[in-house]
Amino acid sequence: MNAALTIPRTLDITAIRQEFPILNREVKGRPLIYLDNAATTQKPQQVIDALVSYYSNYNANIHRGIHTLAEEATASFEQTRDIVQAFIGAPSREEIIFTKGTTESINLVAYCWGRNNISSGDEIIISNMEHHSNFVPWQLLCQEKNAVLKIIPIDDNGELVMEEYEKMLTTRTKLVSIVHVSNALGTVNPVRKIISLAHAVGAVVVVDGAQSAVHLDIDVQEMDCDFFAFSAHKIYGPTGVGVLYGKKALLEAMPPFQSGGEMIKDVSIEKTSFNDLPYKFEAGTPNIADVIAFRSAIRFVLECGKEKIRRHEEELLDYAHQELEKIPGLKIIGKAKEKVSVVSFIIEGAHPQDIGILLDNRGIAVRTGHHCAQPLMDRFCIPGTARVSLAVYNTKYEIDELVKGLHKVVKILSK
């Protein structure tokens, strides 16, 4: 860990902010206030240093070289697999597959498990709050296989209607794929109950953990999911790195996702035999530097302490709800009893894009639009929202500045 970062028993947010170089910059002549963390988090210096160190000191391809640089790079790459295994409580390192992100992880399951296990008339269940990456692959698979796609509805608070989910489950249900935490609403779904009910009818369960892995304690064994997918860049790590956890028996029975180098054991003119897990699903040269740097991001989270981070973010979330609701014409979309640090809202008479542009003029970065969740926006009969998403380095001062900016937005757009 970077020697400059010393984390006391209670989080020193000032010290933590100093670890993120980008927070020192200005936007439109104002200090950056970054509130778009559900899209991607910023990177601490130790992650940046890990990238520089790899390229400066031991840049080499992995697994196949016997020279010193190759051996050092391979060891460092595989150390990340070990820390990821511990981070999510996986029983075996062979069950940790590196991909380029949550989207590719889910598509891997759809192609390699779905195409071999879904038949005409079978049923797949997802929810109405899914990110497109956990919606479109199953929609396409159902179209290809003449299967049935069922959608769990949500109520006005942005919570799943669990009674409807239970009614949907039948002996024809082969797969349930559910988001753990909604990227657009912050809702935390009851995945353990969802998984238990699905397993009772023999269905396999995929959990989209893109938003949950950074906020919640993850134990895939306790959760008992069959697959769990998440991305490094939402956990203070680099872009272009994702993880797919899968139960070993399922992964071993699945064909490879891509073919080429590394995923083979033996190749002859007559036939090819495939490599052991996890390498069967990691064809070609991987994103070595960023996988290595991901380890530093996980260490940053662990040394801060997930529980401490969560308490800080919950305090900010409560404060944001309290202050935003004072703004005339503002309506928060998604008030689930259990949610993480995401606040989506609309303002009467204001298009979300206009809100985003006016806030950007004050150096405040928020996300606007449908957040890759158009079916969810259709459910609330809105084109999109403005979304504030909070991270460990955010402060109440920044929320106060956001509120001041939104009062300006209301004043400007009401003219």
Distance between the termini: 52 Å
Which descriptor suits the 3D outline?
globular
The CATH class of the largest domain: Alpha Beta
Q: What class, by secondary structure content?
A: alpha/beta
What CATH architecture of the largest domain would you give?
A: 3-Layer(aba) Sandwich
DSSP summary: helix tally = 15
Number of domains: 2
Rg, Å, rounded: 22 Å
**Assembly state (oligomeric):** single chain
Strand content: 15-25%
Overall average pLDDT: 94
Summarize the structure in words.
It is a single chain. A hairpin with a 2-residue loop joins strand 1 and strand 2 (30-31). With 415 residues, the protein is of the alpha/beta class. Helix content is 40%, strand content 17%. The protein is globular, with a radius of gyration of 22 Å. Residues 1-8 have low confidence and may be disordered. It folds into two domains: 13-43 and 305-413, Aspartate Aminotransferase, domain 1, CATH 3.90.1150.10; 50-302, Type I PLP-dependent aspartate aminotransferase-like (Major domain) (Aspartate Aminotransferase, domain 2), CATH 3.40.640.
Write the layout of secondary structure elements.
Blueprint: H1 13-17, E1 26-27, E2 30-31, E3 33-34, H2 45-57, H3 68-88, E4 96-99, H4 102-117, E5 123-127, H5 136-145, E6 148-152, H6 162-168, E7 173-179, H7 191-200, E8 204-208, H8 212-215, H9 220-223, E9 227-231, E10 242-246, H10 248-253, E11 264-267, E12 272-274, H11 288-304, H12 306-324, E13 330-333, E14 342-347, H13 352-360, E15 364-365, E16 367-369, H14 374-379, E17 385-389, H15 396-413
Parallel strand pairs: 3-15, 5-6, 5-7, 7-8, 8-9
Antiparallel strand pairs: 1-2, 4-10, 9-10, 11-12, 13-14, 14-17, 16-17
